[in-house]
Design brief:
heterodimer; A: 139 residues; alpha+beta; ATP Synthase, domain 1; 2 domains; eight-stranded mixed β-sheet; 2 helices; 8 strands; B: 293 residues; alpha/beta; Pyruvate Kinase, Chain: A, domain 1; five-stranded mixed β-sheet
Chain lengths: 139, 293
Amino acid sequence: MAAKMQFDLVSPERRLASMAVDAVQIPAADGDMTAMADHAPLITTLRPGVLRVDGAESGAETAYFITGGFADVAGPAITVLAEQAMPASEVTADVMDGFISQARAAHDKLRDGDAGQPGLDAAAKLVADLEMAKSQLVG
Amino acid sequence: MPNLKDLKNRIASVKSTRKITKAMQMVAAAKLRRAQDAAEAARPYAERMQAVMSGLAQAVDASAGGPRLLSGSGKDDVHLLVVMTAERGLCGGFNSTIVRKARVAIDTLVAQGKTVKILTVGKKGREQLKRDHSARMIGHVDLSDVKRLGYADAARIATNVLDRFDAGEFDVATIFFNRFQSVISQIPTATQIVPAQFEAPAAGAEASGAQYDYEPSEEAVLEDLLPRGVATQIFTALLENAASEQGARMSAMDNATRNAGDMIERLTIEYNRSRQAVITNELIEIISGAEAL
């Protein structure tokens, strides 16, 4: 069995998790990635998605929904700084629909503005990411 | 000699004032605990954010032409002061100390020939600054409906500030708030948020920071982090301010309660004295009347 690593998940408002785990799967900007103990030091931005934890102590949450932020992987520890985060068990379809409609409104506003807005693709991706996360979490 | 009825009324009114200030003090104490917990909970995020950003900033600084939020707009002419105060009064010198610090900064900047713009957060600061600086005020953020400060409130202010920066409305932004030290001491503080400034990291942190991989790239990560950093700094300031406000209110109300107690004591003594004087007077009248017969 591989060595455990320290996993911390913090949002600006509170610390959601701090525990020893085997591996953490994070929704990095360029695609999902899994970090285990002794991973090379890495800082990556995150897209909205689902973060999964393997080998947590029993009873702890194993999945979280995060709305972007960044992760700091450094050898024996991984710290995820999420803009907003919540345990997957607290996520309901209504919550996700709230995020999605917000993102969609932002996207539509950009699209209806001048053509060639630089943020349009990013906004469209945000909507898609959120819908993907919703389908993973609440089906 | 004031008449007895008046004195009695005054004692009753000061007593009810004391009840109110006592209640406000206890409410502030309960709110203070909550505000301190919130500030405590936000600390890990802010510290981590600062650590990562200062490491990154050093890495990117070497390569010229970093993001504007870091390098600034190249000028130093227009200053934006974000003055954060409370929505409500009755909290001692809390609001005035921030405003005083902001005023000193405004005067210094104006004397140097800079243009000053003011964005106020909280009603009390706007009221105080409006008197002499109404021409410089460019906006106001109202937090009176906010029951519990959330990151979303800070993000809203940050967006407001960053939009103005992108539109070229200012070159340097500074936030003014009270840093919570203890219940009796809050330190008015000014922190520059745009362009971002970092404390030099400790020597140990520097060594480990050098080997990081960045995904997608150092620049992209920094680009993503800087606006978040501004929001985080504003959030921290808001929380510190909230804790300071409750602390200041608590000690102000404690003083008021004590003053009311002293006042009641003095008034009661005066009341008893005049009551005795009235009795003595009546006795003298009766006795001299009896003697005259």
